[in-house]
Specification:
The chain is an alpha/beta fold. It is built from eight helices and 17 strands.
Length: 333
């Protein structure tokens, strides 16, 4: 066993896509580096394939990289490879991005290793008394936040949605050593025949500005105005779950616990009550809430409270943009 990868420590699985390592890996490496300081431990980036990219993960917080020298495209073969690595090096904890691929891979791997898995975490911390990984996620339909620990099995495993944590600024001077392991599997049961690119539907998880509509938006005319505002601000239109369930907007536009986690610079919530199920998916720098209900929970999260009918706000906001007079005053509209 090499001294570069020692037993214990915090591992981050770095998923690779067609364009390289997925951004959620950088987000998790940054958070893992913070957790590792509390654990007095090290961070190891784990990849299946992509050895040429591995050293650069040191820029985002990895102290070492562990790479399997193969390109296994499916989660069945990757389960074999990761299980072999875990059994050899015995990490303390393993973090995986809750992408479509990660959500399929993680439970397979947890079952193979006979350990626990906390899915869709929105918070991670280290218990100062026990050193255990505190894994926080919404529970009971999002009506409360549960913190889960895994005291008896290793590794402690958690999946985390993209955009929950912010990726650190890369330290361009920092590289990490790379350990390359030979594959143990002979390939998965799935044969990859063709990759088909996704459609042109915008990815709301990458938008810097989101104008999000809820049940209180006030009808199709106001949704059209909301979309126009989003375009004028260089952003995208998103929605809460009720509008998606009603078929008004597609699932790709849904923000929240059962939709996408987003972290735009500006999030304008129009007619959204602010239930915890929705807010669990919002990590915006600035939240503007527009609602006629002064007791709406959304105002507890908002930086700016706009207490008026959504249509009136949208018409005035669009007019202000046309006249170059956009502004929000002192937090009240």
């Amino acid at each position: 066993m090499t001294d570069t990868i020692r037993p214990g420590g915090l591992w981050v699985y770095c998923e690779r896509g067609r364009e390289g390592i997925r951004p959620v890996a950088f987000e998790l490496l940054g958070q893992a580096a913070r957790l590792a300081r509390a654990m007095n431990s090290a961070v190891t980036a784990v990849l299946v394939g992509g050895a040429a990219e591995a050293a650069f993960l040191g820029r985002y917080g990895a102290d070492a990289a562990l790479c399997v020298d193969c390109d296994c495209p499916d989660e069945l073969a990757q389960t074999d490879e990761l299980a072999a690595l875990v059994n050899k090096y015995r990490p303390e904890a393993l973090l995986i991005g809750a992408t479509a691929f990660g959500r399929s891979l993680a439970p397979r791997l947890a079952a193979r290793l006979n350990t626990g898995l906390t899915a869709d975490c929105t918070g991670l911390a280290i218990d100062p008394d026990t050193g255990l990984l505190l894994q926080t996620r919404p529970a009971f339909g999002g009506n409360l936040m549960a913190t889960i620990v895994c005291p008896d099995r290793r590794p402690q495993m958690a999946t985390v949605r993209p955009k929950v944590f912010r990726a650190p600024l890369p330290d361009e001077t920092r590289l990490c050593p790379v350990v390359v392991e030979r594959p143990v599997s002979s390939g998965g049961a799935v044969e990859l025949i063709q990759r088909i690119a996704a459609g042109s539907e915008i990815n709301i998880g990458e938008a810097d500005v989101l104008v999000s509509v809820g049940q209180g938006i006030g009808g199709a005319e106001n949704i059209a105005l909301a979309e126009a505002l989003a375009k004028r601000l260089g952003g995208a239109l998103s929605a809460s779950r009720p509008l998606v369930d009603a078929g008004i907007l597609p699932y790709a536009r849904q923000v929240g616990q059962t939709g996408k986690t987003v972290s735009p610079r500006l999030y304008i919530a129009l007619g959204i009550s602010g239930a915890i199920q929705h807010m669990a998916g919002v990590a915006a720098q600035t939240i503007v809430a527009v609602n006629t209900d002064p007791d709406a929970p959304i105002f507890q999260y908002a930086h700016y409270a706009v207490r008026c009918e959504c249509g009136a706000f949208l018409r005035e906001a669009l007019e202000a943009l046309r006249n170059g007079e956009w502004g929000m005053g002192n937090g009240e509209y």
